[in-house]
Write a structure and sequence with these properties.
The longest helix has 16 residues. A seven-stranded mixed beta sheet has the order 10-9-8-11-12-13-14, sandwiched between helices. A five-stranded parallel beta sheet has the order 1-4-5-6-7, sandwiched between helices. A two-stranded antiparallel ribbon has the order 2-3. Helices cover about 30% and strands about 25% of the residues. By secondary structure, it is α/β, with parallel strands linked by helices. Its EC number is 2.7.6.1. This is Ribose-phosphate pyrophosphokinase.
């Protein structure tokens, strides 16, 4: 009679190995052995070096650019499916391509929907992710999606700062719901930035809705890419009399000249998670790990326990 594996097995995509090691340690398990073979033309093939037949498998990997990160997750899902894993959970701290969640002009793809279908076709039976760019992306899946909020990590950090005259700010209208949730938890005021873009990643105009005079402002957002919006917002707020400006952003994509912009900006501090590894160090960037959050949720999923507390702002 075949042996039934009851313990969950955790594996990492190469781009998230450091975070996966932290998650496995907090979970109380060893990270599984995966070997990736690479051909001279760049094609690669991941291989599980231990049996996963009948197991609950967690595959940890953020899908930030480039596209090889997504491809590696898809290949590992397919390999786990063909190796007869019983449950295959894609643990994606950062769900890439999420900004393409709708058609904002004719003849463009809805990439987030496509990625959801690709993950399911490859073999994912469950998705665990954090701070999706748009909540409705959960509806693109026909499988269960556990959408966690990084506020469970950031709120304790912000409370420890003990800032007087605290005001929460959203860098755009789309993030107002998140800003109001933080303000409710911290019992603070809210201000909103209204921006107009000339094109992607280029801001042509920004206005501030609300008063920041004499306030310690904390900007909250799901991700920081080029940091153009955050640094522009910080400049506007300091010009309007803010005492200090910090930013809390879940996913540090930080492309292009983002690090230079942050260093030269009036931001006092940028607080991020380790959902995406930083490309370089910065005196202004503070990393708060999301490993314990994911380990707790993975354990609850494996033991069929409620994880509703992790959904609360």
């Amino acid at each position: 009679m075949a042996k039934v594996i009851t313990e969950a097995q955790i594996f990492a995509c190469s781009q998230s190995t450091i975070l996966a090691e932290k998650i496995a340690k907090d979970y109380g398990a060893k990270l599984g052995n995966v070997i990736t073979s690479t051909y001279s033309d760049g094609e690669f093939q991941p291989s599980f070096e231990e049996s996963i037949r009948g197991a609950r498998v967690f595959l940890i990997g953020s899908t930030h650019p480039g596209s090889d990160h997504l491809m590696e997750m898809l290949l590992m899902l397919d390999a786990a499916k063909r190796a007869s894993a019983r449950h295959i959970t894609a643990v994606m701290p950062y769900f890439g391509w999420a900004r393409q969640d709708r058609k904002d002009k004719p003849r463009v793809p809805i990439a987030a929907k496509l990625i959801a279908k690709m993950l399911e076709t490859a073999g994912a039976t469950r998705i665990i992710t954090m701070d999706l760019h748009a909540d409705q992306i959960q509806g693109f899946f026909e499988r269960p999606v556990d959408h966690l909020f990084a506020s469970t990590i950031f709120l304790p950090y912000l409370r420890k700062l003990n800032l007087d005259s605290l005001t929460i700010a959203s860098p755009d209208m789309g993030g107002s719901k998140r800003a109001y949730a933080y303000s409710k938890a911290l019992e603070s005021d809210v201000v909103i930035c209204y921006k107009q873009r000339a094109k992607a990643n280029v801001i042509s105009h920004m206005e501030l809705i609300g008063d920041v005079t004499g306030k310690n402002v904390v900007l909250v957002d799901d991700m920081v890419d080029t940091a153009g919006t955050l640094t522009k917002a910080a400049d506007v707020m300091m010009e309007r009399g803010a005492k200090s400006v910090r930013a809390v952003c879940t996913h540090p994509v930080l492309s292009g000249n983002a690090y230079e912009r942050i260093e030269n900006s009036q931001l006092q501090e940028l607080i991020v998670t380790d959902s995406i590894p930083l490309r370089q160090d910065s005196s202004k960037i503070k990393v708060v790990s999301c490993a314990e959050l994911f380990a707790d949720v993975m354990r609850s999923v494996h033991e069929n326990k409620s994880i509703s507390s992790k959904f609360l702002m």
